[in-house]
Design brief:
Elements lengths: L5 E2 L2 E2 L14 E11 L2 E11 L6 E3 L3 H14 L7 E2 L20 H6 L14 E4 L3 H7 L3 E7 L2 E6 L2 E2 L5 E3 L5 E4 H7 L6 H10 E2 L8 H6 L4 H4 L6 H19 L8 H7 L8 H17 L3 H10 L4 H5 L3 H12 L5 H4 L1 H12 L8 H11 L8 H26 L7 H9 L2
Parallel strand pairs: 4-6
Antiparallel strand pairs: 1-2, 3-4, 4-5, 7-12, 7-13, 8-9, 9-10, 9-11, 11-12
Helix pairs in contact: 8-17, 10-15, 11-13, 11-18, 15-16, 15-17
Amino acid sequence: MSYLRAKNEKMLKHPLKCPSCSDFRTLQIDGVSFEKDNKFVGIRVPYFLCPKCGKRDPLRPIEFYDELLEKKFTELKDGECPSFTYKYENEKFKRYDHLGFKYSSADYYLIPGLFSEFDIGYLCPVFFDKDLLLYYNNHPDYSVRFDSFSSCKIYCKGEPMFSWGFGINRNGKIFKWLGDLNDDFNDSVMESHLKRFQASNIDSDHDIYSKFYLSQIPFSMEDAFQDSDNELKIFALKDELDKLFKNNLSFSMTKVEIDDFFDFYKPPILEEKEQIFNAYISLYKLLIENIQTALLKKRLIENGAERKRINELGSIKTLGKILSDILMIDDSSNLISPLFVLSDLRQLQGHFSDTSFVAKYKFCKERLGLDENISHFEVYKKLIERLVEFYENLIEKIKRVGNSKIPGKSSFGASLTGK
């Protein structure tokens, strides 16, 4: 469900953006104790916290708490030490009680864009452990597709299982709106799935920043139209590059069509070493083994390259020669470096116990500009980012080169395909 938040027909800057560093803040609620004349009052103070720069911004001005505390102190007897909570903190949305989910009503009232007086509780986020996705991704009838690193959908036999997808926050927890869950589990045939979701239901950590949240609750056009940042982006760029190769050079760079990628590839879901390194193997097969190396070598030889030397090249170096010698692209070796990192990471799978693993893995991290102690999943995300940059830069450079600079363009495709 998508809700545009506009005022006077002008889109607004997202209120979760940190005014200091423009990162997105998270809601925090801390208990604070105050003392006056041997009287003690405990209250819970909500504020926005920026995880990047650490800036704290209370949701209410300090004068509000001064007035509240002064009133409470006048009502207390000597030595009393009560704690007060706001009504919204413990509210239950009765019409959703049958679902059996726990949630934080404070999220609904305090996180920007969720509250609506006309549909109370609908957009309250409900959180689940990410392990829930493993069941659906490993079941033969189901699959999980990630639209980005912070949004996903569950499919049943190729069809969406739910009307809307899920968000994934910065702590790796997945969430979905309470009202959407009510719609999704309205049918009795979904009872077994409801029980599975109930078992994976966890406490809120008050952070719903994700591409899912931004696109569902947009405060600007940029928020509303979120671009993918994961493998989905790579596959789309790969498809665009294949079309560009075909238009300019009369053949695709790779063999497998984009639609077949989704049937083959299973992305890693958790911070689990085996899952992530298995993903490197799949990406290698799809992005490197899939290159039409024989056709590229044939063109290089026809362009005057030494046959023996060219035949000794692997797929990545062959592509690099095409970029430098045929498409006349400068700095091709740096351009294709993410492919070499992917190749090295793929070779590390199955060699976790080797003494050389740590040194080789460290070298991969260094080439990605990462610290040695970074998590496996962060390495994976960084590699995806660099691969996206590779495809984007290559597409831009080929478009910039243009047909006029491609040697033998008129006979290029014919010589490769034998036509």
